[in-house]
Queue: 2 jobs
Job 1
Amino acid sequence: MFDDIAWRYDFINHFLTLGIDVWWRRKTIQLISNKEKPIILDIATGTADLAISLAKHKHPFKVIGIDISEGMLEYGQKKIKREDLDNQIVLQQGNGEELPFSDNSFDVITIGFGIRNFEHPEKGLSEMFRVLKSKGELVILEFSRPKNHFLCRLFDLYFCYILPYIGKIFSKHDSAYKYLPESVMQFPYGCNFLKMMQQAGFDQTIFLSLTMGIVTIYKGVKP
């Protein structure tokens, strides 16, 4: 599915969020502590938006972006080349639930709008904990639902009816943007997801809601 919509993925994301997704990623990066030349893993990197921002603003030694979709990685690689960041960002195909890296390999792990697509998010969190170094940070940006009842009704209306219609027009894919609201509705956001992070071993866990609760940033540290 993601291979099929890769050619329109960035445009549709910016269009459907009115460009606010750029600010969401910036806030995510701001939650990462300043480290000297960190090695960063960006899981579910997609077309590498977050990986590129990390390379520009966190001055890493290396950013490794992995994604299960070859089509998304292909478009991401083109963007990295345009930004002249080939020496800082490496993209490779990989599964977030079976990370192909040694224990204690990374200073920071990020995920932008990808954890809800995991079949077994608790397994993915366990893998992230394994490959993080001690004192390493996990920072996740994901959709959530507003707590305000009226805003939640508006959110559901937009996500369940308007967004899939617009997404279908631009992506030429019948089901991709029907999947998005379904995955958001099923995701255990807020305190429930924080508990999953704690069960995986993460300490100092916090979450920050943005844009009236439409998205949430989660952070945890490996002891």
Job 2
Amino acid sequence: MREGDGELFSALYPAVRRFAGAVRPVGVEADDLVQEAVARTLAVRSLRDLDDPLAYLRMAVLRVAMNARRSQRRSDARVALAAGSGSGRSDDYPSDLSDLSRVPPKARAVLFLTVVESCSYREAAEVVGCSEAAARQIAVRALRELRVGVEADLRTGDST
């Protein structure tokens, strides 16, 4: 790290880590997302050179999470194809937040920023790289998808 980046990163770490925990795909550690995002960022610039280092690191974490999810899906598809089964993956240890895995990382990011971090839709839109209206629509669709999924689980008695 360049001079001053360590102190800045220490100050930003708790918020970036919380965000990574919210957007991470199942089986990927939040700290791994943060480490990869920071390493990619520092390879090209200093954190001090960024206009909004927190927003930049959140976007970097989101991109790493989306890449990890795509890789995971491709891997799951190959396993399912080789095994001749449907899913190829099960969650043996579901978390209290396992329902959030029903929606993509970008939607989780918008929900996390607006609901947990109390950011405005404008701020969330800047982080995920879309318009404010698109961020609102992403949140509405994600909440609808979560509600439908949870209601279906309750009807069938599935508590995972």
